[in-house]
Amino acid sequence: MASKPADDSNARPIAHTRKQTPSAAHENRRTADMTVDNSAESTATVKGGARNPSSHQHRPILLVQTANGRSLEEVNSSIPVPRNKTSFWRNLAAFSGPGALVAVGYMDPGNWITSIGGGAQYGYLLMSVVLISSLIAMMLQYMSAKLGIVTGLDLAQATREHTGRKLSFVLWICTELAVMATDIAEVIGGAIALKLLFGIPLVVGVALTVLDVLILLLLTHLGFRRIEAIVAGLIMVIMLIFVYEVILARPDVPAMLEGFIPNKTILGRGQLTMALGIVGATVMPHNLYLHSSIVQTRDFDRSDDKQVANAVRFATWDSNIQLTGAFIVNCLLLALGAAMFFGHGESLDTFTALYNALGDQSIAGPVASGLLSTLFAVALLASGQNSTITGTLTGQIVMEGFIRMRIPIWLRRLVTRVISIIPVLICTVIFGGKESALDSLLVYSQVFLCVALPISMVPLVWFTSSRKIMGKYANPKWLAALAWVVVAVLSALNVQLAIQDVSELIALL
After folding, report:
1. What count of other Cβ atoms lies within 10 Å of the Cβ of residue 146?
2. Which of 133, 160, 412, 488 has the smallest C-beta neighbourhood within 10 Å, fewest atoms?
3. Given CA atoms 403, 405, 409, 414 in this order, what sign does their dihedral have?
């Protein structure tokens, strides 16, 4: 590959040295800005992101290093893809995988209560909200993937390059808080799933979630392609479980299809609040950083415009297919709430309440059984583990991109998880292990996500709409205009959600 250095730790293997984008002057400024002392860098790379042992064999291995290479350097360009003309399906298979990791964020435990609760309270009315949210997600993830492929930078790196060190540090803090807020949802979901499946007390379950760092260590040694396969497999488990449960629930299909048509009754106070919750829980800021990085794991010739165009095309196919799967899961969650629990929405505000309701014939009807409850808990555990994998990767991406600091992935995971479980443990102990308190904490943790979403969306739309940065791959004017409208609307909705959550918290205090 013309754009990769053979063996030089000072070289900066930037994918966007093509003549189309960006300009040579822009590239020179970036290379100069990114130069660091070789003594701090112990991870020189060769083709495929592999380590070159001969160049640093006498240097100590540091826990904290300077991140000055490509995004997720250890796996960047590590997965081969067809370079010659080949079939559509072979190309799709080679580029499929990153979309699965992204789709995880759109079906994590934070989505479950809002989607099932929306169906339980308002039937199929909010199906249109799930549809619109998914279409917005597809648009944003397309832009994120395109940014990574065309420029060779993930969103954090691009933001650092165009904002400077000081502002990047502030943005990093905000993004880290959002990642930790997401991690809180994973801790709570995992701990509750362990309690439901094995009777493990919540305090113990919360502490046990720290051990998932061992799972992550194992996965990192299997290779990135296998991580993608494991995540896709867990997504399939979640989907099959809810397909089975919804089939048993026998939803009103005509009413469900009618729900995809927006209705003005959504603007009612209660309906609008639930709709805002669904939108806020669906579009996740950390996915924009994640996607712009992991699409770079594919090894194509970044100096060949045809291969770049091919990569953008099939990354978009991969993303849209996987997000369609996430859309189906969210529809199934809402349909499950509508078919089984309509009229009981006020009492189904915790995971345990949903678990118990699936086994209670007075609520779920004659199809209620212990099997349905168990499958629900298994899906919850699978969802939490999936989110753990993607959350850790995102944390590494934003740390390296915004402040150019790299630490081992196990240490990154351990620190993030320990910080995240502290408020969960405190809440669990103070409230005597009551799940309702944990679910309230989960809701309030979403405030950080509300703040972080505009921070990630604004630069993404700005960069991908700039012809100077993206060249011919810049968003067309109609798409850029639509994206800015979406940014404005989602930002306003998230500010409203944040104000609402903070007001409720103050009222409780």
Report:
1. 26
2. 488
3. negative
Residues 52-104: tens digit of each pLDDT: 444 444 445 556 666 667 888 888 888 999 887 788 999 999 999 999 999 88
Q: Tokens at residue 439, please?
A: 């679910």
Per-residue burial over 390-399, b = 16 or more CB atoms within 10 Å of its CB, e = otherwise: bbbbbbbbbb
Confidence of residue 345 (pLDDT cuts 50, 70, 90): low
**CA 108/CA 350 separation, integer angstroms:** 15
CA distance 1 to 14: 12
The dihedrals phi and psi of 305, each to the nearest 5 degrees, come to -60, -35
- Tell me the C-alpha to C-alpha distance, in Å, between residue 449 and each of 155, 231, 486: 17, 23, 16
Express each pLDDT in 279-338 by its tens digit.
Answer: 766 777 888 999 999 999 999 988 899 999 999 999 999 999 999 999 999 999 999 888
Residue 195's nearest CA partner among 364, 438, 507, 475 is 438
Closest CA to 15 of 128, 150, 117: 150
C-beta atoms surrounding 82 within 10 Å: 16
Q: What angle do CA 29, 487, 109 make, to 5 degrees?
A: 105
Q: Return the pLDDT at 399.
A: 87
- What's the farthest any 2 CA atoms get from each other in the chain? 70
CA atoms within 13 A on the CB side of 261: 4
Helices 109-122 and 269-282 meet at what angle, rounded to 10? 160
Contact between residue 45 and residue 53 where contact means Cβ atoms under 8 Å apart: no
Do residues 81 and 298 make contact, with C-beta atoms less than 8 angstroms apart?
A: yes
Residue type, 116: I
Q: What's the CA gap between 32 and 57, in Å, rounded?
A: 26
Q: Name which of 88, 404, 134 is nearest 283 in CA terms.
A: 134
pLDDT tens readout for residues 225-277: 888 888 888 889 889 998 998 898 889 999 999 999 988 888 776 777 778 77
Q: What is the pTM of this model?
A: 0.81
Structure tokens at 19: 């003549």
What CA–CA distances, in Å, run from 357 to 299, 348, 374? 48, 8, 12
User: Which amino acid would we find at residue 422?
Assistant: I
**Which parts of 340-431 are beta strand (E)?**
405-406
Distance CA 171, CA 376 (A): 37
Q: How far apart (Å, rounded) are the C-alpha atoms in residues 192 and 231?
A: 21
Distance CA 105, CA 456 (A): 15
Gyration radius from the chain CA atoms:
23
Give residue 413's pLDDT: 67
